[in-house]
Amino acid sequence: LSILNAIEKLMPSRTIRQHILSFLSISTLPAIMVNSFSPQILTTRYIAKPDAKSHATMIIPRSSTLLELSTKEVIITDFPPPKSAVSCPALQLLMEIDAASLELTEVSSIEESYFLPDEELIPIKQISLEEQLNIKMSPSASTNMAVSKPRVVGHRGSLYQSLENTRHSIRLAANDCEEVEIDVFLLKCGTLTVFHGSGTDKNPGWLKEYCNVEGTILDYTYEEARKLKFNQYHTEFGCGPDTIRELEHEYYIPTLEEVLSDAKQTGVVIKVELKGPGTTDPVLELVERLNMVDQVHYSSFEHSRIKRVRELHPERNADGSHTYKTGCLFNEVPDNFVELALNVDASEVHLKYSTATKERVEEIHSAGMDSMVWMRGPMGMVDDLTHRFHDVGNEDERMYSTIMATGVRAMCVNRPDVLKQMLIGQAMNSRTLVPPMI
Prior knowledge:
This protein has 438 residues and is of the alpha/beta class.
């Protein structure tokens, strides 16, 4: 996330001024909830609410997020004021917040503020994940009620236990996972490296938030990238700053060859997301040189890279399955997503967990392909669970059970240890319920 222009405090009274000064003395904000929104507003207007319910909303300029802050007195929005809003003089403060650390970094003035009647407030709507995925779970659903036993895939390793996409995290994930997903770039020196970075699926690999340096991983040689230090306070790093400090000697950007050599010893399957341009051919060459064709799968949001794998390797096993396994990644799901996957002869379809409805999963299987859901990174999951889905926790057993009820065959999760233990418990309970033979 970039630095967001944000926040507030309005009202002319001495009491409110004192409250503002008290608020400014803390270094972090209370709870933040985010909801999808897309205003196209060039000016910024702020709406003040004086009668102190613990509620404040703001639409951020140049962003597509609506934030609700558990502070008082203020409603903040980019929209021009509604007719019901009444202009009021006010003490006006604008603070800049670093979205990664939520530290208050700057205070400056703003121009406009308004009273807004309570009835004009629009609450953020939440739904249940089971409603989103079009399934029905019992109110007391537990791990035993899930209908499938998916393969456990570690997302970037085991990122809540160890720093993502490092050798340490991937080796740790091998204890709980059949498969581990990693992200791969081809650097300008020709080295394949394992890294995620900030940015979008179309423009990934940015370093500022990950390593406190400018540019993308593609701007560096491997010798330079190896020396980069991770930003221990980046909130996308689920393992937290204490773990990063404690294991600093273990945490560097590894080469793909190092990661694959480790996997060859542990036996875990590696799902390589072809993250950067030019990755397909050299990754295939490396896998073949290491004799790991059966232990490496390939995926990408850029489906032309998957198509390239199949063009080079159309081979099939005796059972008709592809020798080289590929997966089409989708963020938003078009109506013809199965057709798109079939057009590049993919083995699997990988859907974001919140889009993997039971009907879509069944459609994938009916087309002869395998299915996998993937979780967002830690910050994205917090966004979803704070304001989108009210019935599940952040990758807790309830969430995993709900997803499993779609019938999906693999789950790429941030907490593979939790999913693994849940499946073990499910299997033990299932054996306990089997009646004795007479």
